[in-house]
# Entry
Amino acid sequence: MATYTMKEAKPAPTANKGVVFWLRENLFPDVKNTLLTLAGLYILYAIIPPLLDWMIFNATWTGTKEEVVNSGARWIFIVEKFDQFMYGFYPEALHWRPNLVGILSIALIFGFKYISSVKLKIATIILFPIICFVLISGGWFGLEVVETEKWGGLMLTILVAAVGIVASFPIGVVLALGRQSNMPILRTLCIGFIEFVRGVPLITILFMASVLLPLFFHDGIEFNKLLRALIGITLFQAAYIAEVIRGGLQAIPKGQYEASEALGLTYWQGMILIILPQALKISIPNLVGSFISLFKDTTLVLIIGLFDILAMVTLTNSDTNWLGYEVEGYVFVTLIYWVCCFSMSQYSKSIERKFNTEH
Amino acid sequence: MTNKQLPVDGKGLLNNPQHRAIFFQVFALALVVFFAFYFANNMFDNIESRGITTGFSFLDNTAGFGISQTLIPYDDGTSTFMDVFIVGLLNTILVSVLGIIFASIIGLLLGVARLSSNFLISKLALVYIETFRNIPILLQILFWYNVVLAALPGPRQSFAYLDSVFLNNRGLLLPEPIFQSGSGAVLVAFVLAIAAIIYLIRWSRKRHDDTGEEFPIIKVSLAILILAPTLVYFIAGQPITAIYPELKGFNFRGGLTIIPELLALLFALSIYTATYIAEAVRAGIEAVPKGQKEAAKSLGLKDYVILTKVVLPQALRVIIPPVINQFLNLTKNSSLATAIGYPELVTLFSGTTLNQVGQAIEIILMTMAVYLTISILISLLLNWVNAKMAIKGR
# Structure
């Protein structure tokens, strides 16, 4: 009887592994792809070296503007105007206040999960915005008052985005629940609001907030420019958040609704304890996406006369000592926005991957 | 052991869910009506105390300001605010339509490049998408306008292509087509060619259903579309000519000028929106199960047939709704033109006209109504497309 002897598997032929194989498979498999690769390499060659030269190797990082000899970017402009880009016209001696708010916010974001008691958590959530507001605007505890006209730069951008997301979130949840409820009048009102806001550009809502809002109230009630912009942005964002949360609500199986009713929970108990925790969890990636759009949309406040970080480019270039530095300004602001938005979108993708349990 | 006494009869007025629903709704409605009334009341008080006129009669007044780009005849001295409104609306539509065309082309190419088996091409497309979708659109508009286009040379040093297309800091100059008598025949030929192609498509589809024979429909229709109008053009004695832009003194005369504001807006809008369209295209093609492609391949179909008959029909169902949404977003984003002063609806109407007339309520409502109408029209289109593309069950 013949016996079968196991043989060692042969190693893959050298032509099927290694760098050369990868290159041939992915970059040069046939004539068409070789041409495409060469075109791609040419694009890289045409863009990367000049860009690096301009941004790093030929750039001027220190010194005064009279000493500039290199042809690249003159980053000394950014260094010189850095405070304005960050804080606008906020008094220099008081910069510690927004800085403190920034540090507190980061501490809150990372330390929030270590707060054990729920009551303490709720108290923090309610108290935190008040502390931030008092710190930045002053007026109490002997802090010097800083008018909102002086707020600007990245500080204002982050403030508008933060207020936009925090204030619009509860309104968005209520609107989403209203849209999903079975009360016809309530539903119609919510649908009307959401579709109206989503149908018009943000800029018209901002115009409405800045021009029409003062007409809607008594003469005695004054809104400053910043507050009007915030109201406009909050209403706008609320409609988009509502749609995102509605997506989450619709993804919850009907059995969950029925189970909460079968347990005898009231509408709000069922929503808060059973439905919303699940719906919000699956909407997180889209909520982050919506927040990214809001962050990008904060640039629009410059059209109604607020000085966010983008407006600072034009403003710092109107300094007669520093004319013609727009390119550096725009590139700097672009980098800031890009880093923020890109990291947020990567974060949302990582959450999506974590939640994605299907294979 | 005593049982805790539960209220047995839940018959209180508010314990009945139906009554409660009515109560809540009446309460919500009353709240809305109250605020509407309160705002309206204050509004009329304020309007009266500030001496603002109301009504739409201002539309008949003479506007009296110049507009840098108009698609209809417009005169500083005699045209009314209604004309301004129409000029702005047409310019909004112009920039949206052009932007949609360019964004679709770039987005389609990028989406296909993103799926390419070529590592470098796919990663280049990824870098493009991640770069431009993470930069605010307003920043991109301002960058193109204030940095790139402002750096272009003056008319005398303009970039010239074939002595007919010029690019300088006053804009892009193109030859302007002039339609002389007889050019109607070319138009008729063009329309007839399209009609013939539609008929041809129907015929070839029917023949394909009956006999299974393929007809080279794309090549033949392209040939008809190009040859028929060209033939008529030469037979009719070349009725369409062009005026070329010419440098006279310090500026160009003649030709079609595309103002730098429009260029900047088009660049920014199409580059930005293309990233979203590319992602939609990629997601749509990836949504087609791999088994479909493998099944088609094992049937022995050619790559081209697999793409057009198996992958695309299924992918389009996923691609088209988000792409139409992006078209709507592009139209809404075109309102940012007001930051660089391109004369579209928001710039002309919510900007200049509002400053001159001061009737904020009417003007902002009219502007919003235009955008609302556009988005309702686009959602109707979307619903129609969705219904048309829905998988037909048997």
In short: The mean pLDDT of chain B is 84. Chain B is about 65% helix and 5% strand.
